[in-house]
């Protein structure tokens, strides 16, 4: 919402809030986030942010008879919506996407509209990778797909959806399915998986307070050394005009990936050094009157 009863023309996106709802941040109260209004719709998916390891994501099917090799782990490098995300290392995907499946139960009720969103990206020799996600009944009587979407992942973190399905019948045997098989070897990252039915979360409250970062911070880039790209993670305690500049050892600015007003919270910048020579570089973060630096090493 653009305006509110406090007269603050500020919004926080659903991705930042992690749930749908009206959130108002009062910047004058440093380090405090005040949330008012609707608390948000409940998530029907267990552990969609992967903060509980792989709980809820150990069911499915892998066609090992076709030589499929895959590893599922939790990545804690702040790649997508938060600290943790799902990392799927496909070492041999077999001949088709359905050779690697991961599922969660998602029973459908007549007349209810279900909305799916999630975030994803990939790393590998290809620039893109297609995966499939479905609402699917896999009972012995035959497969019935109520929703099927083919998603093209890239090297850039992207939010996919919303994908909607309005149930015309009750079906308690439906599952949310991800298909990761086929294609060349690849590493896939998935996060922030949400399926909601538009109903309020009964456990939510109408107002709550949570802490924002208490001080400006600039983490060590990862990976480091890097070739050719790396991720720079920093947090802001309040809104600020941010300049993120990369210098060589002679003090020459070689890149300026950020120069704009940013909101308080966690930010990740993907830095590409493919056009730079190997060597040491200094990453300088300026926010308000504060300045932080980190040394980075590019090795080609």
Question: Could you characterize the architecture of this molecule?
Answer:
By secondary structure, the protein is an all-beta fold. It has two domains: 59-196, Sandwich (Jelly Rolls); 213-298, Sandwich (Immunoglobulin-like), CATH 2.60.40. It is built from one helix and 19 strands. Strands 2-5-10-7-8 form a five-stranded antiparallel beta sheet, with no helix packed on it. A five-stranded antiparallel beta sheet has the order 3-4-11-6-9, with no helix packed on it. Strands 16-15-18-19 form a four-stranded antiparallel beta sheet, with no helix packed on it. Strand 18 (279-287) and strand 19 (290-298) form a beta hairpin. The chain is globular.
SSE arrangement:
Layout: H1 14-17, E1 32-35, E2 59-62, E3 69-75, E4 85-92, E5 100-105, E6 113-124, E7 129-137, E8 144-153, E9 158-166, E10 174-179, E11 186-196, E12 208-211, E13 217-218, E14 229-236, E15 240-248, E16 253-262, E17 265-272, E18 279-287, E19 290-298
Antiparallel strand pairs: 1-12, 2-5, 3-4, 4-11, 5-10, 6-9, 6-11, 7-8, 7-10, 13-14, 14-17, 15-16, 15-18, 18-19
């Amino acid at each position: 919402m653009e305006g509110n009863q406090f007269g603050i023309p500020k919004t926080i996106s659903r991705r930042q809030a992690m749930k749908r709802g009206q959130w108002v941040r009062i910047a004058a109260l440093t380090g405090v986030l005040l949330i008012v209004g609707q608390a948000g719709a409940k998530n029907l998916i267990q552990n969609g942010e992967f903060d509980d390891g792989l709980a809820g994501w150990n069911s499915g099917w892998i066609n090992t008879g076709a030589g499929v090799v895959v590893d599922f782990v939790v990545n804690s490098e702040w790649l997508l919506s938060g600290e943790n995300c799902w990392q799927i290392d496909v070492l041999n995907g077999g001949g088709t996407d359905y050779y690697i499946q991961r599922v969660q139960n998602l029973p459908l009720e007549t007349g209810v509209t279900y909305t799916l969103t999630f975030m994803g990206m990939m790393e590998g020799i290809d620039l893109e990778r297609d995966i499939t996600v479905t609402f699917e009944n896999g009972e012995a009587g035959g497969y019935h797909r109520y929703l099927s979407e083919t998603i093209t992942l890239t090297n850039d973190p992207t939010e996919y959806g919303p994908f909607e399905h309005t149930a015309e019948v009750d079906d308690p045997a439906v599952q949310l399915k991800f298909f990761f098989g086929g294609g060349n070897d690849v590493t896939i990252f998935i996060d922030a998986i949400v399926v909601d039915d538009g109903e309020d979360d009964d456990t939510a409250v109408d107002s709550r307070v949570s802490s924002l970062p208490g001080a400006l911070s600039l983490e060590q880039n990862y990976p480091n050394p890097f070739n050719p790209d790396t991720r720079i993670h920093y947090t802001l305690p309040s809104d600020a005009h941010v300049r993120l500049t990369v210098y060589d050892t002679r003090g020459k600015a070689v890149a300026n990936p950020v120069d704009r007003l940013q909101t308080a919270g966690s930010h990740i910048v993907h830095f590409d050094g493919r056009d730079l020579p190997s060597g040491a570089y200094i990453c300088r973060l300026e926010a308000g009157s504060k300045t932080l630096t980190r040394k980075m090493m590019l090795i080609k």
